[in-house]
Amino acid sequence: MRLEPARLQSAVRAGASGAGEVVDVGAFLVCLHPEDDNRYLNHAVPAEGADRAGVAAAAPGVRALMTARARLPRIEAIAGAVGGLEAELAARGWELEARLPVMAATPATVATPGRPPGLRLVTVCAGDDAAVVRRLLETQRGPFGLDPEGLEEAEVQGWRGRSDSAGVLAELYGIPAAAGRLSPVAAGLAEIVGVATRAPYRGRGLAAIVTAALARLAFERGAQAAFLTPGDERAGRAYERAGFAATAEAVSFVSK
């Protein structure tokens, strides 16, 4: 299955609406977390209609804004979605941080991974009980190097208050073990983000199980395909077990 880069970029851009703060900087939308300076929670994505000239004009503004906010200047994009973006950023001193596959699944390809004993999957949506939302968000934080106890109540309530919020929490014998979230459906696509398994529960196939459940949730919400970007080869193999296959590439650039 092949998804057009511009279509993927539109879906990624829709997910930016869930950031704590989104600042329009010409050809980019800068997504900022209000409290946390973690590099993966703060980045810019190409705005609708961005082109090479716009990238050249706006990149200094992205650098200045993120530096002023004590964030690492960082840009994420789907390769090929904006012509000349990579060459323009490289020419202006931005360094390629990563080039990763984008993987996707459809209702026809999504798998049903086997479940270990004691597993319970909980679908968490907007307006659900705050304690359940907190368990979902805290479960995601630790594997990404974030302090679970650092989750602010405002973030919990903000997630509950967004009408398109959705996630899946995996519990083993009642203990939160893995989780992931779903971005809003846009251009017929939905992005799966933040799939994480807590260290004591790895090696049991939970990432694949949560990913497959999130994909089915996306299809229930009208998506024709679900997609994600694995952080490494090990994660990619887990997503393959959920029925996902490479469809494009994502790139990230940083400026130090």
What brief labels describe this structure?
globular, alpha+beta, Aminopeptidase, 3-stranded antiparallel beta sheet, 256 residues, 11 strands
Give a description of the structure:
- It is a single chain.
- The chain is an alpha+beta fold and 256 residues long.
- The chain has 2 domains: 5-101, Gcn5-related N-acetyltransferase (GNAT) (Aminopeptidase), CATH 3.40.630; 119-248, Gcn5-related N-acetyltransferase (GNAT) (Aminopeptidase), CATH 3.40.630.
- The chain has 7 helices and 11 strands.
- The chain has an 8-stranded mixed beta sheet, with helices on both faces. Strands 1-2-3 form a 3-stranded antiparallel beta sheet.
- Strand 1 and strand 2 form a beta hairpin.
- The mean pLDDT is 94.
**Helix percent band:** 25-40%
Q: Which spans have pLDDT < 50 for at least 5 consecutive residues?
A: none
Second-tier CATH architecture of the largest domain: 3-Layer(aba) Sandwich
Number of helices: 7
Tell me the major beta sheet: 8 strands, mixed
Average pLDDT reading: 94
The secondary-structure class comes to alpha+beta
The domain tally reads 2
Alpha carbon gap, first and last residue: 37 Å
Query: In sequence order, what are the helices and strands, one letter per element?
Result: HEEEHEHEEHHEEEHEHE
Instruction: Name the CATH superfamily classification of the largest domain.
Output: Gcn5-related N-acetyltransferase (GNAT)
Instruction: Return the CATH class of the largest domain.
Output: Alpha Beta
Q: What is the name of the CATH topology of the largest domain?
A: Aminopeptidase
Spatial strand order of the main sheet: 4-11-5-10-9-8-7-6
Q: Any idea what the shape is? A: globular
